[in-house]
Amino acid sequence: MKLALVVPGGVDRSGEFRVIPVLLALIGRLARAHDVHVFALRQEAAAGRWQLAGATVHNIGDGWTRLRAIAAIRAEHRRAPFDVIQAIFSGSCSLVAVAAAKWLRRPSLVHVAGGELVTLYAIGYGGRRKWKGRLREAVVLRGADVITAASAPIIDSLQTLGLKARRVPLGVDLRTWPPLAPRERSAKQARLIHVASLNRVKDQSTLLQALAVLAEAGLDFRMDIVGEDTLQGEMQQLARRLGLEQHVRFHGFKTQRELRPLMESADLLVMSSLHEAGPLVALEAAAAGVPTVGTAVGHIAEWAPSAALAVPIGEAPALADAIRRLLGDEELRLRLAATAQCRAIREDADHTALAFEAIYLRLLAACE
To answer: 201: closest CA among 149, 128, 279, 269?
Structure first.
């Protein structure tokens, strides 16, 4: 098959920086058997083309991006026809993919993977905050032949809009994240880790407030916070105001190779997001034998209570209590880690690629 994947970015030439690891894992697996062309809307400001993970990346760049992306798909289709056109993320990606598919009379698939269905006015986030976004999603998603999403909460959100979707988690590459059996804690000091860009959606202010509760209670812990800072030092300032200098380390962005040893040394992954389709890092942590405690979003919500511990969004005391509970109950911590790891292994990157390939084949059969 010849496949077109429309993505916002995450496919940098380096293969390490400005990438979405699970997306690269999917592309690489599809490219083993198919001719894969990735149309990245804004990976770089200028248009360009390169090879990555066995696929051809067409970077569209700035300026009339959506129209030029549709034109690029049509041009490549003229060279050799596409069989399926898929968007990874809705929003602009789905608009491009579905419009191009309609024009070329090819089947289309949209994978909802971000905040396309969310309305978070307080932080200016979500694809449904404005009427144009709501109209776009209503029209485009109903125009797609198949809709998929990574986790049950996103499936539920789509159902409330009258849209049927299939659950296809974006799985971890187990070659990059080889499974490591859950381990008993070996040190008195608890090792916590949080992996996410520092931004409003990830709500690190709630995370730090929860850590302040733990510090006030005398818990001996260290928190490693890994992720690009988009808030210009705001979270570091908050950590200082809360007296967390001895407990929290901000590491900035880390590549997958740099992240792995930090993850392996952790006792708990702690997430505080206001919204997630994943988070994908919970799957990486599970592969490394580390359980997750966090707000009831995405995989955390659907895995709780057997494979993760979930608390209400934005409630720092509840998050602190959940962390303290897991650190004080080693049997529970290890049981959650083992169950989460089974799920991550069962729904790894190979599973994702096979699931999408099965959908492609059904779509093509329906077109005959």
So the answer is: 279
Question: CATH fold of 190-346, please?
Answer: Rossmann fold (3.40.50)
**Cα 40 from Cα 132, distance rounded (Å):** 22
pLDDT digits (tens, 9 = 90+) for 330-357: 999 999 999 999 999 999 999 999 999 9
Cα separation, 4 vs 182, in Å, equals: 39
Question: What is the arrangement of strands in the sheet containing 221-226, beginning at the earlier edge strand?
Answer: 248-252, 221-226, 190-195, 268-271, 292-295, 309-311
The predicted pLDDT at position 119 comes to 85
Using alpha carbons only, how large is the chain's radius of gyration in Å?
Answer: 21
Distances (CA, A) of 144 to 66, 112, 139, 150, 162: 17, 12, 9, 17, 14
Give me the amino acid identity at 335. Answer: R
- The answer, as to whether pTM is greater than 0.70, is yes
Domains 2-171+348-367 and 190-346 are alike in CATH topology:
yes
Q: What are the structural domain ranges in the chain?
A: 2-171+348-367, 190-346
Whole-number pLDDT of residue 353:
98
Contact, 281 vs 252, CB < 8 A?
no
- Residue 186: its pLDDT value, please? 83
HSE toward the beta carbon, residue 217, CA cutoff 13 A: 13
- Residues of the chain below pLDDT 70: 368
| 102-111 pLDDT, tens digit each | 999 999 999 9
Domain covering 2-171+348-367 in this structure, CATH number = 3.40.50.2000
